[in-house]
Amino acid sequence: MPALESAGLTPRSMHLLVLAILLCGSGVLSCRSDRLAVAAVDAGPASLPPVMLWAWHGEHDLRFIAPERTGVAFLAGTVRVSGDSVALLPGTSSVDAPRGTVLLPVVRIEVDPLRRARLDAQRLDDVAASILGFDDRRFRGLQLDFDAKRSERGFYLQVLATVRRALGERFLSVTALPSWCVGDSWLPGDAAGEWPSHLIDEVVPMLFRMGTDGESIRARLADGRDFVARCRSAFGVSADEPVPTLFSNRRLYLFSPDGWTQSSYDELVSRAVMRTGNARL
Q1: Which of 32, 154, 230, 256 is 20 to 30 A off residue 188, Cα-Cα?
Q2: Close Cβ partners of 83 (under 8 Å, ≥ 6 residues apart)
């Protein structure tokens, strides 16, 4: 594991370091307040509340949320593959939330576009070990965020299979480009082959920063045409973009590039309710 060793981290020491970060709050999760506690672990997508706030970089004062209605998916860290090296970058989010708030660690995977990645068995082991370093049974499970290119999809499926085996029955969520949920469907449960549908519990199509696909995706939803079955459990929307037409009875992940306040939270939830008619949000 060249990258881990060059950073002075063996797999064992990396795991202990990450757990210490998660438990002590040095950059990933705030332990400043005794209000922050983790709700009892319960496997499965139904165990998460109907709204999840993505908390990326910086400090997030979320003491205004109601835990029975809203949870927090925080950026625990980024796993970066560059050439034949794998680097682990702990997250920089600090969360202050009420006792009982459901917390879901998010691990982002990035592949260096300037150095061709060797996505072989060794990199598979390194990436999976890095991801699982963030697994803590105080949390419901994990969410993975990877904008995998076509050439990276086979590798990603193997990573998902490895993480799934380690998590057992606990919750595994993935974010998805909207194109994966229409004509370019390839995720487990829709693609043919050996990958079982239970490999992942939830797919979250991100309906923002959609680029050239944005117009067609918005038109599809406005016409009432749904995504493939695998992508019908959740949506992701952003506070700084229009909320497209949404289907009801799905979990909503909310993102705000400027962080969260009571007013920005209320405003985005209100817009989402208008677009879904889902009062449970």
Answers
A1: 256
A2: 112, 115, 116, 117, 118
Beta strand ranges found along the chain (DSSP E): 37-38, 51-55, 58-61, 70-82, 85-90, 93-96, 99-101, 103-111, 141-145, 171-176, 202-205, 234-238, 251-255
Residue where the block lists tokens 């962080």: 259
Domain 2-276 in CATH 3.20.20? The answer is yes
3-state secondary structure of 58: strand
Over residues 37-67, the pLDDT tens digits come to 444 444 455 579 999 999 998 999 999 999 9
Beta partners for residue 88, in sequence order:
79
Q: Considering the entire predicted model, what is its pTM?
A: 0.83
Domain ranges of the chain: 2-276
Give the closest residue to 4 by CA, choosing from 120, 111, 91, 123: 123
Amino acid of residue 211: G
pLDDT in tens, 175-195: 999 999 987 778 776 654 455
Q: Where are the alpha helices (DSSP H) in 49-120?
A: none
The one-letter amino acid code at 133 reads G
Question: How long is the chain?
Answer: 281
